[in-house]
Predict the 3D structure of the following.
Amino acid sequence: MTKMRVTFLGSGDAFGSGGRLQPCLWVESPDCNFLIDCGATVMPAMRRYHVNPDAVDVILISHLHGDHFGGIPFFILDGQLISKRTKPLVIAGPTGTAKKLTLLMETMFPGSATVQRKFPVEILELTPSVRQALPGLQVTPYRVEHMVSDDSLALRIECCDQIIAYTGDTEWTDALMPACSAANLVIAEAYYYEKKVKYHMDLQTLLKHWPEMQAERLVLTHMSGEMLLRLGELEGEFADDGKVIELGRLEATQ
């Protein structure tokens, strides 16, 4: 039995290049079930891949762009109106998450941010470079280079003796070194193959630094249409919607 199971509910960019859904990872473990990012296509993805939204304990958000947190209003309303959720939900993201989520919900569904719910929603704002305990996991966020007005974060997530590092969207920054160092799994944006674009990562820059990270496994995600056309040339591993990764193994019990 594996310690953790990671499913790519969405592996695409903001524009659906290649027909891919927006960023969202579903992580199952004995200690905590959680999402990493929650793009606007989260609910169709959950239906497609038979994930029960009520099983989600925590949602971790890397930054406050629509393709990374725009699915949370749908997720909350599904719990309120469809599944009749009662289990608490924790949402953890960068500074400004509470304010921007309220604004988003009120813009999309007026009144939805203040309506009485049958399940508590706790919103936590993460402090960069500070390791923080959440239900069933530990997360250390690192500020990266993607947004000008708000924090964008890479996330180092520790759960069940496994480490998942998620770069979020960013150009290369040295903050990725402590975020990814010795991780069991690094999930990294590779928006272009070698083209340099401000605030986004290209594959060649990532591979240049990969040996220094001394991590076990690298999976590329959030790829542009130009990058998707080159997948046949890649020797490394890349994500696709529905891809499943298993990490670690639990000791067998008698």
Notes: The helical segments are 42-48, 66-69, 72-82, 97-108, 176-180, 203-213, 225-228. The longest strand covers residues 2-10. The longest helix spans residues 97-108. The chain has one domain: 2-249.
